[in-house]
Every structure is written in structure tokens, then in C-alpha cells.
Automatic annotation (TrEMBL), chain A:
This is AP-3 complex subunit mu-1. GO terms for cellular component: clathrin adaptor complex; cytoplasmic vesicle membrane; Golgi apparatus. Gene3D superfamilies: 3.30.450.60, Mu homology domain, subdomain B. It is a peripheral membrane protein. GO terms for biological process: intracellular protein transport; vesicle-mediated transport. Its main location: Golgi. Belongs to the adaptor complexes medium subunit family. Keywords: Cytoplasmic vesicle, Golgi apparatus, Membrane, Protein transport, Transport. The keyword Transport applies.
TrEMBL record, chain B:
The gene is ap3b2. Pfam families: Adaptin_N, AP3B1_C, AP3B1_C_2. Residues 219-250, 620-784 are annotated as: Disordered. Its main location: membrane. It is found in: Cytoplasmic vesicle, Clathrin-coated vesicle membrane; Golgi apparatus. This is AP-3 complex subunit beta. It comes from Cottoperca gobio (Frogmouth). Residues 656-674 have a biased composition (Low complexity).
Length: 418, 1062
């Protein structure tokens, strides 16, 4: 299965290597660097590369490449999914997944990798099992460790590893018992020039933060589960129960986790919260262009649209932008040719507008295509699909937990073609 | 520092060393110092030392041996974590000398108490194998042993080991197949991927192609659309079944192996996994194994993965692209999900484009082309080029839009970007080749472009076009050649070759104008640097310029050059990739990766399915299951049990009683032999019919205390009608409930399902069984108070019924509603089936020398064994002398069938008659049971053959459940027949009567009055049998039967048809 793993930073330095079988020289990465140079964007590096003796499967996360070396047939998604799980675990342990943090905690990371794979086959990937074996670093613990010589490594087999609920450890205790659920929906949409919807769907996720004592058994039910077109669950959710009565029944992992992902299909009518009036044009004769964008609210269910932001990937030939926003501020990054207009709150009385001129490189031909606008927004307290949690019940424990549900709607891949 | 006494210093030192290793620096010099610490007490230091050892042991074999004894000690440690990690490290040290030690350790660990250690042992197997392949045989033994392991923890790892060491030993899987299928959902996600992939291969060798019939048909019909040909197939299937008996014999209708079905059913929920690899694994399993009609379910899940990380998208899209070629219909509804965003990475864009192109057909082509139009304007030029290619492919595949596409492409010729123009030219060239006559203006237009386009491929294409169709553009062609001749020396090689070609072709068609030019070009080519060009020039000169020496070939020059060339076929690069197992690395690379196991073709005939049978008799299996259960009881995870217990779990106290009830019937089902409610119940209702038996029964009843007394009231005819009905309602309610449970139980026993729900069910049963005896007396004392009474079926006085009802959960209430709706209709089915019973003659009065035996199927559950059909025999002695010792002997049965003999009738006086009940397990077949009927003087050979309608027992379903179940039994499992109802049986009641007479089914409540629905399960296997009669105008009606067992379904259709039309 997975033979070796190399962590490579943006500029192409290998800063960590781990071998699960015999050692493979890091020169194998040269094939990867070659491919990386060929692809302009790091995102365009093919995830699977074939070399004379090995196969290289890589992912690109947080400006780092996770490159694994494979020698025999293995489902590529297996490896990709695992690499992402490694990145998730690192993020979970240290707060983020960056080169400097990994370098600072290199031993912990190395120990983690050792536990996650045995002979290239995943052994323990549940974060709470790992956390029992290798405790995440905290300031308190490092102080204690230096004083009394405690260790960061558990000496008994994590209970989760053996039980049929590997995601939860035994003996969890809290003084405040709380369960929070965030229903986050993202609108994926493509609008065409005239503002009509080419394609729109809603991707939702329920993020949970459960801090409950003991072994609670929760049931979360919805007012309108029929809305959900397709779902995927954390392994803790009982699928049978969902099929029979469309309620989520589960023994939750401890702490933060993603309970469920769902999808509201394009067959249902998706409400688009804002409209965009835009006019971007480049002149045939002179090396400049004009830009005029106005955004207004469309169907926002009575809530304010916040954190509104417009991102435009300009054609290569645009040298500078001279614009005036009526609200918020804009930046134009010359190197990446990205124009970002940060608007903030959308005021329905006074619609935000960005207007001005773009100057092009002298002599460059007029770009034949107008750049598309990517829109980012956030609406608090509403799930745009109309999904509502009806109640949360707890069995198996005596105390009364504090429960909370929050709804947020965001723009996902929301694109306006121009 | 390593030599220090303080652990903290050692730890610090080890950390530095490990950090060095992590950065890829060489730390091998420190080996002796580190190895000393292998026995260190501090667990963190120990772990780091292990890490170091594994890394460098191979280089320093001699020194590494020093540490072995520590591990050997570790293997005996009481702490399972230490045992496991000792084995892990020991097996990871790649030193050949210790192979025997490793072998021993693995063998020992394979029978360790702790599943975690066994898992580690499974991991160690491939390590040892890669170190020393000669150990293979011994390792296979260990694998075989571990494969039999029943814990989910081990399953994934051992299958992994199996795949690496001995993937060819497929026979090792047989015995474990069903267990693996059932455990699958509880195995950790990585194990799931491996197991599913292995099972896909296994299923390909062991089962028949579910699309067999369709593929046979397909040979005749040219490639039709996915959706439509499916319908056709169904129709065909029906035809097959309906009329052509000889044809049927020739081409046996496909019946899916229950194990095949089991695999498909158990993997389906995994489509909802959060792990993309699992979803993909299930998707490929369905793609390779499922009947066509069922493959569709995977589309939704795959589309969902498109929201994931871009690497995941990349892999999924590759696979979707392959699937769309074979099964276009599957992804058509999700067309828009493949629309491209400007922010997608180029490789994703290109793949999406591929999928969109594959999905294009007459109906959606206009939307797709509109999308393509926006893509063409993209800034990403590689992507634009790919789009143009895609348009070309759409145009070739779909004739209607060819002209539109061509026009669009021609417009692109005026695009400012050279790459776009070039790509368009290449595509146009291919398109024009299909019908050049119509498009001479386009060729002219393109000829003009030669001045501007610099991309060699495009120039070459234009030149080729002009040369090929020079007759269509007689004026321009020579002019183009002139220009080209001028710039010949500066052109790229492919352009030069095409110039030579053009010259040659023009020379042949229009030698007057171009003779000099051609010679000029050929001369230039003669001194070209490239030998290809020189060769070509020489060859062409010989061929076309007539010289005295010229051979016979020059006569045919024109034929050679201006032959009609077939138009190129633009096809997807993903065509035929599906011979690789989808989702595999080999598929992605389109090349065989090392260690790839070919997906075998379906076998012609199915290998013996019995190899998968596990010999353990039913009851031991049960107990072993329970044993495992006990292990699980300690763990607090009984989750799914609640999910399973169905309608009642939300009401807490009620659920207990309900599960008690379930267990009551369940115990009987599993054959543990304990006296249970249902059997009593069965005998009671029997008693209702059999007046003769009453006395006998009464004795029994008296034993059974007051509860039963009220029962006798029920059967008595003075009973107030209203009261009776209420009882009935309650009774049938509880019956239906227990039936449901029976279903799930029998289902699980059929599939020998050991997944958690059924386990927990068993567990509950056990619990209930234990708790029952003591609770019973208590119950009887305070009947009014305890809810548990429900499972006693005693008729409560009418005022009490209502309070009980309020405790029922809502879904139960709806059940009740459904019941009361259909109550009147149901009553004949549930209470007086005997009126409709048909009796058959077993022994005629004359052949039996005065002894006459008739039998009928009493349609009562046969209490000693739930899998048996109860056969009630009426023995009449018409002779003048008494008959003694009437019993049966010498039972001859088909394999699998079983008979429970009736108790011997000791004395049958002359002129009297007696009744006896026997049970026969027909194994869901209509094979006859042959036996001898013996009296004290004679023996008679007799046989009982059941009509198919008696091989099932009624099941109560709600309308929704019915629809859901029916939805799952579509396709091959559905048989539809049109019929004209007999004049007498046009009203609803008559239909119900005749169907119920023909088959032991129960009525399903239904909203529409034109439709009657019935449900039942086959007695032995518990397969669902659903029948629908939809009546239309003037006696026309349609009969639909859905049954997993197609043979039963077919026969049932015939029987019901007969009943309805007579």
C-alpha cells in the first residue's frame, strides 16, 4: 500500500519524510518536481503520476504537498483520502497545517504517522483514538511534563480502538454538558450574464460540537427532512434509522466533528440571495477598460447579507485598476491579477457600487473574454434551503444537556459569468 | 545523553534523533547507543527507539539482533498494546535471519485473545511475505485462520493480507463470504475499501452475469439507449416467461444468487459513507456487479464527491467518464453538476468536459452547446482547445447539430487567439471529411487563413483539406501551393510533408497549372534536412512524374492519392477503459499497475453456491452469535437495535413490551423450541376451525389458565360482534407486528446476517427469554396495570382497549388505522381462511381400500417449525373394520426439504374420521413430498404437491411499506400481466377473495379503490411476495407480482391469473 510519504513545501523542499516499508530515496520526488514545473498552478499538478518503478500520488493542501509513494496497485482514492486525513489530523492537533508548525512538532507528527499506518495500511485514523495514544501538545501539559516527567504517549490501548464505537472514548466528563449544532449551507451557483440562473444547488453540512458526559445517545430530527436529496454521514450515524424515519440517531464523538453532509438538488428551486448588475468592457482602440458592478439584495428572507465580497480574476493584460467603491474597499494584486472588493454588510437602501477604469498593458490585444465574478457572502440565522432542526433528544444519560442550533448560509462556488 | 540515567534526557536525545530521521538525515552512526535503550522503561523513549530501530535495522543487521530478545519478551506481556507493538516492530525489522522467529510470533499472535493483537498479526503477514516469499504456504494457513475471525477489527487487515499474499486463492473466501458481507458495515472504513474490492473480484468468479439476458438481446438490437433498452428487456423477459416454455428451457431465466443479492444489499448503505474511497469502492462494485436497473443508485453519491477536494474530483471524474460511456442514462439527470467554473483547475475542467461530451444526446445537446459557447471564451487556452475538440465530438456523434457546430467552429476561425483557430481548423478538417461536398465555401475560407495561421498542425490540416478537395476549389488550390512553395524552407516538418502532398495531388488533377510548382517543391524537398521529407519527395517524384523507367505504379498514382478516405471517428479516450476495475490505479493510468488483479469475466455457469454454506447447524450458529453478543453487551453500543425495532422505539416503556413480543415470536422462529405465544395462538385459531379437536384442546386450555379461557369465548359464536372485532383488531395488530419481526428475523436467518441489528435482536431475544419466565406470573396477577400484557393477546374488555392504544407509538397507530380501514376485507383472510380452503385428495376411497384421506393447507403457522407449511389431513375410515396405527413412513424428499410427521393415529373406528396436521418444509419449491401412509395392515404410496400460493404466509404491510418494497423489487423481479376479469369477479370483494384463495397472502390497505394489493413472504426463505391487481374499465385488469424469487413469481402469476379469470 502506501510506501513512503514526503511533505514538500511550496518552493519544493522536502521537509519531512516517513517510510513504512523499506527506505525509498527522495530522488523519486524529482519526477514530481518535473510535473510541478510543467503545471503552472500547483493545483494543476496531476494527483497521480507514473514513474518507472513507483507511482506518486499527491495532494495539495494549505500550500503543502503531501506526496506518497506507491509500488503496487491500490485504489487512488484510498491514498488521497488518507493523505487528506493526515492533513486533517495535523490540523486538529496543532490548529493549522503549516510548514513551520510541522517543523516545530516534528517528533509528534512523526509519531502520529507511525501510528496511522502500519506497513502502509491505515491502522488508526480516528482522531480521538490517536489523541489517547499521542496527546496533543498544550502549554499546560508541556509545563507538567518538564516538571514531573510525564509523557505525551499513552501506555494503554485506547478504548476506542477495540469498541464498536471507535470514535468515542470511554469516561468522558464535563461539568457543563453542551451540544451545539451548526447548520451551514453553501450555495453553489452559476449565473449567466443576464442574471438568470444556469445552475444552482445547495450543499449543506452539519458541524457539531458535543461536550457531553458519558455515553449519550442522541437523536436529531428535522422538520422537513424530505428536502435533503443526498446525504453522507459520520460513521456514528445509524443508517437504518435514517432510512426508516429520517432522523439522525448517533452516539457522538467527543468534541468537534462533521455530523452530516447533505445536498439539496438543483431540482428544487434554490433562492439566490443577491443580484449582480455588472458591466465590464474593454475598448477596442485604447489599452483600457471600464468596470461597473452593483450588488443588490434579492431574496434574503428578511436577514442582512454580511461579509459580502467580490473576487475577480482579471485577464493577464490588466495592469492596474482605478476604481471607486461606494462602500467597502478594494485591492488589486498585480502579481496574481486578482481584484478583491470587500463590501461588508449589504445595505438595501444604498446599494454598493464599484466603478472605474482598468488600464491594460500597452499593445496587448483586447481580452476577448470578460472575467467572471466570484461572490462570497454570509447570512446569519437562516438556512437558505429552509431546513429546520425540530428537536434533539438524548437517551442513555440522566443529566440535561444544553442544546443549541445555529444556521448560517454562505456562498459556496457562486459565480457570475460576464 | 543517551547514556544518561535520567529518562528526560534520554527522551530529549531520542527526540532529536527522530527529528533527524524525519528530515531525512542519516543517523545510523548512533545505532549502538540507541539499541541499548530498547529495554527502557519510559514508554515514550521506548516508542522512539522502536521508530529508530525500524528505520535502521536493515542497515545494521547484527546490532539489531541484540534487540530481538526484548521484543520476544514483549510478546508475552499482559498489556495488549505492548504485545501488539512488540509484534509490529519485530515484523518491521527487515532482517532475514529472524524470519523463523517472526513466523512463530505471527502464528502465536493470530490466536491471541485480543483482537487488536490479531489485527497486528494480520498486518505482519505481508511484511514477512515481502521479506521472505518462501514462507507463503505457512502464511496462507495463518490467513485462513484469521479469515475465520469474527471481529470487525481483524476483517479489514486480514483481507488486506490476503490480497497481498495470495489473491489467487479465492477458495479461501467461500466459507467467509457471508460473514464478510454482513460484517462489512461495521468494519473501519479502510478495511471496507479493501474488502469491497476483493468481493467484487470474488463475485465475478462465483456468480452469473445479472445482465446476461440483456446482453444476449443486445447482440440483436444494435446499441440502444440505456433507459429504453431496459424497458425492452423487461418486456422481453415477460414474454419469455409467459408463453415460450420451450424457449425458457433453453435459456434459463436468470435468478440472482441470494449471496449476490446479499452483497449488493449490504454494500448499498456504504454509499453514504463520508470516505470517498468507500463510496468509490461501492460504486465500482455496483457498476461491475449489479443488474443494469440498479446501477443508477451510485450516480447520486458520485456526484456528491464532486464537492470534495480537487484530487478526489480528479479521480472521480475519471471514473465517471468511463461509466458515462457505458451507462449514459445514469448521469443524465446530473448533467448540470458537471458544468464548469472558471476557478476549477484545468485538469478538472478537461475531465468535466469529457463527461459532458459523453452525456450529450439529441435532447440535451442544445444546452450543452450553449455551455460550450461560454467555455470557448475562457482565458484558459488549454481548456478552450479541449472544448473545441469536445464540440467536434458532439458534432460527429449527433448528426442533427453537425451543421450548427460547424458554423460555430467556422466563426471561431476569426478568433484572435491562434491556438483557438488552430484547434478549430483541426476539428473542422475532421468534420468536413464526413461530407465535403456541401462545404466548399468553408474550404475556401480556410484557404485564406493560411496567410495568418502559424500553428503547424493547423497549417498542415488546411493544406491537407485543400489537397483532398482540390476539385471543389479549383481556382484557389494552385494559388495556395504557390504561396507555400515560396515559404517552403521556413515551414515545420509536418507542414512540408503536407505541401508535398498538396503538390502531388494538384499535379495529378491539374497538371497544366501546377507542373512547375510541383517540381520546384520537390526539388526543395530533395535537399531538406529531414530524411522523411527527402524520402517522401523521392517517392512522389517517382510515382507521379512519368519517366521512361517509371513502373506500373505510376498508372495508379491518381488512385493512390485521391482515394476516398474514410472519415475519422472521434472517440473518447475513456472508451474501453472499463476492462480495468474502476477506481483502481490501473484504470486511472490506463495501464496495468504492479500487483493489479484482473477483473475476471463472468462465468458461463455458476459455480456451486453451496461452497459458501457454513456447515455449522442452525442452532449452534445461533448460540455462537449470542456468545459474541455477550461480548458486545459489555460495550454500550446497542444503537442499531433501536433503529431496528421499528415502529415502537420512541415510546420507552412500550418498546420494552414490544421487543418482548418480538422476542416471543422470534424465539420460536429460531427454533430454540421454547413454548411461545404464537404457537399457542396458532393452535387456538386452529381450534376455531376444527370442531372435532375441541375437546382435546380444551384439556390443553385448562392447563393454560385463565388467559386462555377468554380466548374460548372469542371463538364462541355468542360473542358480541363488536367485541370480537376489537379483539381481532388487536390480535391482527399484534400479529402484524410479530409478522414484521418474523420478516426481519427470517430475512436475517436467510442471509445468516450477523450484522449488529440482528445480533442485537438475538440479544434482545435472549434477554427477553431470560426475563420471561419470572415475569409471567406477575403479569397474570396484575393484568390491568402492566403494559406487557400486550404480548399475551388476551382480549381486554372493551373499555380498556383505548388506554392501551394511547401508549402505542404514532406509527403503530397508523398501522392500526390501516388495519381498521381494511378490517372488513381482512377478516376473511385472518379469521376464516378455512372457508376458502381447497382440499386435495391424497388417497382415494377405492385405492385406499375404504380409507380416504384428503388434505388441505390450513394456512396456519406450523408451530413446531416456522419454516414448514402446515398440511391438515382429514382421514376417514369408510371401511367396515377399524384401522389401527395410522402413521407415515419412508419419506422421500428433494434435497433441503424436511417433513414433520403427524402423530400416529392409534385407532380409527369404522365410519369415523380424524384430523392430523403435519408440517412440510418445501424449500420454496413446488416439488412434491412423497411418503408412505401405513396402517397396521397396508402401505399406500402418496405424495403431496403444494400449489405455489401455499408456499407463502401473509405479511402485513402498510401502503407506504408496500410501495417501498415494491420499488426495490423492480426490473427482473417484477412480472406484469394483463387480463380480463371473469364476470363474476369484478367487484373488489370478489377479487380479494379469489386472490386470497389462490395464494396465502394478506391484503394491504390501499388508497385507491381500483387497486388491490397483497403481501406475503415465502415460508422458507422469507422472500417478499407482492401482488397488485389494478382493475380498469370493463373487466380489464393488470396483475403485477413482485418477488425476488422469479420462479415463484412466475408461477404465482399463473395461479392468480387462473383464479381471476375463471
Amino acid at each position: 500500500m502506501i510506501h513512503s510519504l514526503f511533505l514538500i513545501n511550496h518552493s519544493g523542499d522536502i521537509f519531512l519524510e516517513k517510510h513504512w516499508k523499506s527506505v525509498i530515496s527522495r530522488s523519486v520526488c524529482d519526477y514530481f518536481f518535473e510535473a510541478k514545473d510543467k503545471a503552472v498552478d500547483p493545483e494543476n499538478v496531476p494527483p497521480v503520476l507514473q514513474t518507472p518503478h513507483h507511482y506518486l500520488i499527491s495532494i495539495y493542501r494549505d500550500k503543502l504537498f503531501f506526496l506518497s509513494v506507491i509500488q503496487t496497485e491500490v485504489p487512488p482514492l484510498f491514498v488521497i483520502e488518507f493523505l487528506h486525513r493526515v492533513a486533517d489530523t495535523i490540523q486538529d492537533y496543532f490548529g493549522e497545517c503549516s510548514e513551520s508548525l510541522i517543523k516545530d512538532n516534528v517528533v509528534t507528527v512523526y509519531e502520529l504517522l507511525e501510528e496511522m499506518l502500519d506497513n502502509g495500511f491505515p491502522l488508526a485514523t480516528e482522531s480521538n483514538v490517536l489523541k489517547e495514544m499521542i496527546r496533543p501538545p498544550t502549554i499546560l501539559r508541556s509545563v507538567v511534563n518538564t516538571l514531573i516527567g510525564g509523557s505525551n504517549v499513552g501506555d494503554t490501548l485506547p478504548t476506542g480502538q477495540l469498541s464498536s464505537v471507535p470514535w468515542r472514548r470511554v469516561g468522558v466528563k464535563y461539568t457543563n454538558n453542551e451540544a451545539y449544532f451548526d447548520v451551514i449551507e453553501e450555495i453553489d451557483a452559476i449565473l449567466d450574464k443576464s442574471g438568470t440562473t444556469v445552475f444552482a444547488e445547495i450543499q449543506g453540512v452539519i458541524e457539531a460540537c458535543v461536550r457531553l458526559t458519558g455515553m449519550p445517545d442522541l437523536t436529531l430530527s428535522f422538520m422537513n427532512p424530505r428536502l435533503l436529496d443526498d446525504v453522507s454521514f459520520h460513521p456514528c450515524v445509524r443508517f437504518k434509522r435514517w432510512e426508516s424515519e429520517q432522523a439522525l440517531s448517533f452516539i457522538p464523538p467527543d468534541g468537534n466533528f462533521t455530523l452530516m453532509n447533505y445536498h439539496v438538488s438543483s431540482q428544487n428551486l434554490v433562492t439566490i440571495p443577491v443580484y449582480v448588475k455588472q458591466n465590464i468592457s474593454f475598448f477596442e482602440t485604447e489599452p483600457c477598460g471600464r468596470l461597473d458592478i452593483t450588488i443588490g439584495p434579492k431574496q434574503t428572507m428578511g436577514k442582512t447579507v454580511e461579509a459580502l465580497m467580490v473576487t475577480i480574476h482579471m485577464p493577464k493584460s490588466v495592469v492596474s485598476a482605478n476604481l471607486t467603491p461606494t462602500q467597502g474597499s478594494y485591492t488589486y494584486d498585480l502579481a496574481t491579477k486578482v481584484l478583491v472588493w470587500d463590501i461588508g454588510k449589504l445595505n438595501p437602501q444604498k446599494l454598493p457600487n464599484l466603478r472605474g477604469s482598468l488600464s491594460l498593458q500597452a499593445g496587448a490585444p483586447k481580452p476577448e473574454d470578460n472575467p467572471s465574478l466570484n461572490i462570497d457572502l454570509k447570512i446569519q440565522q437562516v438556512a437558505i434551503s429552509g431546513l429546520k432542526v425540530s428537536r434533539l433528544e438524548m437517551f442513555g444519560e440522566k443529566y440535561k444537556p444544553f442544546k443549541g442550533v445555529k444556521y448560517v448560509t454562505k456562498a459556496g462556488k457562486f459565480q457570475v459569468r460576464t | 545523553m543517551l547514556d544518561s540515567n535520567k529518562d528526560s534526557l534520554k527522551l530529549e536525545a531520542m527526540k532529536r534523533i527522530v527529528a533527524m530521521i524525519a528530515r531525512g538525515k542519516n543517523a545510523s552512526d548512533l545505532f549502538p547507543a540507541v539499541v541499548k535503550n530498547v529495554a527502557c522503561k519510559n514508554i515514550e523513549v521506548k516508542k522512539l527507539v522502536y521508530v529508530y530501530l525500524v528505520r535502521y535495522a536493515e542497515e545494521q543487521q547484527d546490532l539489531a539482533l541484540l534487540s530481538i530478545s526484548t521484543f520476544q519478551r514483549g510478546l508475552k506481556d499482559p498489556n495488549q498494546l505492548i504485545r501488539a507493538s512488540a509484534l509490529r516492530v519485530l515484523s518491521s525489522i527487515r532482517v532475514t535471519i529472524i524470519v523463523p522467529i517472526m513466523m512463530l510470533a505471527i502464528k502465536e499472535a493470530a490466536s491471541d485473545m485480543s483482537p487488536y493483537v490479531r489485527k497486528t498479526a494480520a498486518h505482519a503477514i505481508p511484511k514477512l511475505y515481502s521479506l521472505d516469499p518462501e514462507q507463503k504456504d505457512q502464511l496462507i494457513e495463518v490467513i485462513e485462520k484469521l479469515l475465520a475471525d469474527k471481529t470487525t477489527l481483524v476483517a479489514g487487515s486480514v483481507v488486506m493480507a490476503f490480497e497481498e499474499v495470495c489473491p489467487e486463492r479465492i477458495e479461501l473466501i467461500h466459507k467467509n463470504y457471508r460473514k464478510l458481507c454482513n460484517l462489512l458495515i461495521d468494519v473501519e472504513e479502510w478495511g471496507q475499501v479493501v474488502i469491497i474490492n476483493m468481493l467484487t473480484r470474488y463475485a465475478r468468479t462465483q456468480f452469473l452475469n445479472p445482465n446476461m439476458n440483456e446482453s444476449l438481446l443486445e447482440e440483436g438490437n444494435d446499441k440502444a439507449f440505456y433507459g429504453s433498452d431496459d424497458d425492452e428487456d423487461e418486456e422481453e423477459d415477460e414474454k419469455d416467461k409467459k408463453a415460450e416454455a420451450p424457449a425458457m428451457a433453453k435459456r434459463k431465466p436468470y435468478v440472482m444468487d441470494p449471496d449476490h443479492r446479499l452483497l449488493l444489499r449490504n454494500t448499498k448503505p456504504l454509499l453514504q459513507s463520508r470516505n470517498a474511497a468507500v463510496v468509490m469502492a461501492v460504486a465500482q462494485l455496483y457498476f461491475h456487479l449489479a443488474p443494469k436497473a440498479e446501477v443508477g443508485v451510485i450516480a447520486k453519491a458520485l456526484v456528491r464527491l464532486l464537492r470534495s477536494h480537487s484530487e478526489v474530483q480528479y479521480v472521480v471524474l475519471q471514473n465517471v467518464a468511463t461509466m458515462t460511456i457505458k451507462r449514459r442514462g445514469m448521469f443524465e439527470p446530473y448533467l448540470k453538476s458537471f458544468y464548469i467554473r472558471s476557478t476549477d483547475p484545468t485538469q478538472i475542467k478537461v475531465l468535466k468536459l469529457e463527461v459532458l461530451t459523453n452525456l450529450a444526446n439529441e435532447t440535451n445537446i442544445s444546452t450543452i452547446l450553449r455551455e460550450f459557447q461560454t467555455y470557448i471564451k475562457s482565458m484558459d487556452k488549454d481548456f478552450v482547445a479541449a472544448t473545441i475538440q469536445a464540440i467536434g465530438r458532439c458534432a460527429t456523434n449527433i448528426g442533427e447539430v453537425r451543421d450548427t457546430c460547424l458554423n460555430g467552429l467556422v466563426q471561431l476561425l476569426s478568433n484572435r487567439d491562434e491556438l483557438v483557430v488552430a484547434e478549430s481548423v483541426v476539428v473542422i478538417k475532421k468534420l468536413l471529411q464526413m461530407q465535403p461536398e456541401k462545404h466548399s465555401d468553408i474550404i475556401k475560407h480556410m484557404a485564406k487563413l493560411t496567410d495568418n495561421i502559424q500553428v503547424p498542425m493547423a497549417r498542415a490540416s488546411i493544406l491537407w483539406l485543400i489537397g483532398e478537395y482540390c476539385e471543389h476549389v479549383p481556382k484557389i488550390a494552385p494559388d495556395v501551393l504557390r504561396k507555400m512553395a515560396k515559404s517552403f524552407t521556413n515551414e515545420e516538418d509536418i507542414v512540408k510533408l503536407q505541401i508535398i502532398n498538396l503538390a502531388a495531388k494538384l499535379y495529378l488533377t491539374n497538371s497544366k497549372q501546377t507542373k512547375l510548382l510541383t517540381q520546384y517543391v520537390l526539388n526543395l524537398a530533395k535537399y531538406d534536412q529531414n530524411y522523411d521529407i527527402r524520402d517522401r519527395a523521392r517517392f512522389i517524384r517517382q510515382l507521379i512524374v512519368p519517366t521512361e523507367k517509371s513502373g506500373a505504379l505510376s498508372k495508379y498514382a491518381k488512385k493512390l492519392f485521391l482515394a476516398l478516405k474514410p472519415a475519422p471517428i472521434l472517440e473518447s479516450p475513456f472508451k474501453d477503459r472499463d476492462h480495468f476495475q474502476l477506481g483502481s490505479l490501473s484504470h486511472l493510468l490506463n495501464a496495468k499497475a504492479g500487483g493489479y488483479q484482473e477483473l475476471p469475466d463472468w462465468p458461463e455457469a455458476a459455480p456451486d453456491p453451496s461452497v459458501r454454506n457454513v456447515e455449522v447447524p442452525e442452532w449452534t450458529k445461533c448460540s455462537s452469535r449470542e456468545k459474541r453478543k455477550e461480548k458486545k453487551v459489555e460495550k454500550p453500543f446497542y444503537s442499531d437495535s433501536e433503529g431496528e425495532s421499528g415502529p415502537t422505539e420512541s415510546a420507552d416503556s412500550e418498546s420494552d413490551s414490544a421487543s418482548g413480543l418480538e422476542s416471543g415470536s422470534g424465539i420460536e422462529e429460531s427454533g430454540s423450541g421454547s413454548e411461545s405465544e404464537e404457537s399457542e395462538e396458532g393452535s387456538e385459531s386452529e381450534e376455531e376451525e376444527e370442531e372435532e379437536e375441541k375437546d382435546k384442546k380444551k384439556k390443553k386450555k385448562e392447563l393454560k389458565k385463565p388467559v386462555q379461557e377468554s380466548e374460548s369465548e372469542q371463538s364462541s359464536e355468542e360473542e358480541v360482534r363488536k367485541h370480537e372485532r376489537k379483539n381481532k383488531q388487536r390480535k391482527s395488530d399484534s400479529e402484524s407486528e410479530s409478522d414484521e419481526e418474523d420478516d426481519s428475523e427470517s430475512e436475517s436467518s436467510r442471509s445468516e446476517s450477523e450484522d449488529s441489528e440482528s445480533e442485537t435482536e438475538v440479544k434482545k431475544k435472549k434477554k427477553a427469554a431470560e426475563s420471561k419466565p419470572p415475569s409471567k406470573p406477575v403479569k397474570k396477577e396484575k393484568k390491568e396495570m402492566s403494559l406487557l400484557d400486550l404480548d399475551d393477546f388476551e382480549p381486554a374488555p372493551s373499555p380498556q382497549v383505548t388506554p392501551v392504544n394511547t401508549f402505542l407509538s404514532s406509527s403503530l397507530v397508523t398501522d392500526l388505522e390501516g388495519l381498521s380501514l381494511s378490517d372488513t376485507v381482512l377478516s376473511p383472510a385472518t379469521t376464516s381462511p378455512c372457508s376458502a380452503l381447497k382440499s386435495y385428495e391424497l388417497l382415494h376411497r377405492i385405492t385406499g381400500e375404504g380409507l380416504c384421506v384428503e388434505y388441505c393447507f390450513s394456512r396456519q403457522p406450523f408451530s413446531p417449525d416456522g419454516n414448514m407449511v402446515a398440511v391438515q389431513m382429514q382421514v376417514t375410515n369408510n371401511s367396515t373394520s377399524d384401522t389401527k396405527n395410522l402413521h407415515m413412513e419412508d419419506v422421500k424428499l428433494q434435497s433441503g426439504m424436511r417433513v414433520k410427521e403427524f402423530p400416529e393415529i392409534e385407532l380409527l373406528p369404522a365410519g369415523e374420521s380424524a384430523t392430523a396436521v403435519m408440517g412440510i418444509d418445501f424449500c420454496d419449491s413446488t416439488q412434491a413430498a412423497n411418503f408412505q401412509l401405513c396402517t397396521h395392515t397396508r402401505k399406500f404410496f402418496v405424495s403431496i404437491q403444494p400449489p405455489v400460493g401455499e408456499l407463502m404466509r401473509p405479511v402485513f404491510l402498510t401502503e407506504n411499506e408496500f410501495k417501498k418494497e415494491q420499488g426495490q423489487l423492480m426490473g427482473m423481479n417484477e412480472i406484469t400481466e394483463k387480463l380480463t376479469l371473469d364476470a363474476k369477479c369484478r367487484n373488489e370483494h370478489a377479487i380479494v377473495q379469489s386472490v386470497i384463495t389462490a395464494a396465502n397472502l394478506s391484503r394491504v390497505p390501499c388508497g385507491s379503490d381500483r387497486e388491490c394489493r397483497f403481501a406475503g413472504r415465502t415460508v422458507t426463505s422469507g422472500s417478499l411476495v407482492l401482488a397488485t391487481v389494478a382493475s380498469k374499465e370493463e373487466g380489464a385488469a393488470q396483475l403485477t407480482v413482485n418477488c425476488e424469487k422469479m420462479v415463484i413469481g412466475t408461477m404465482l402469476v399463473k395461479d392468480i391469473l387462473l383464479a381471476l379469470t375463471q
